[in-house]
What we know:
Elements: H1 3-7, E1 15-17, E2 23-25, E3 37-39, E4 45-47, H2 50-74, H3 79-85, H4 95-100, H5 107-115, H6 130-144, H7 153-161
Antiparallel strand pairs: 1-2, 3-4
Helix pairs in contact: 3-6
Amino acid sequence: MNATAAIAPARNATATAGPLGQAASNLDGPCAADPVVLRDEDGVAGAGPQYMRALQRANRVRLARAELKRSVATGAVDVASVILECPWEAESMAVADLLMSQRRWGLTRCRKFLSQVPMSEKKTIGSMTERQRHTLASMLGSTERGRAWSATPWVTDSLTRA
């Protein structure tokens, strides 16, 4: 017996007798004959393999995210509201991707902003706690009202008091 046989034993395609005496192949599972059902945007069902369903879902999420990013870039949708509401298309989206879709927000500004709250740029919006959501939304709200956020708040405070 070699090492690969111990790790992944070969699948036997011979037929064996089942509990009721009928022949059952070792390759056939309980779902082997069941058709896979695909649904398009309208909810119409169709048959197809699992990888096609996954591809359709990935395309739908990608297109919805692109639309969300466009609406954030134009200012039609507020980033703070997206973070608080967490729509389905943003659940698995990284926080940095959403922040950088805003006008004039690049990687450096995003990193500086997220360094104020100990949060990774790769953190998904759907996995954020309620407290993290409210903190980010309030920080984003303060930037929109004109109060500049900074890693050193005393510098901006001294400038505003003069």
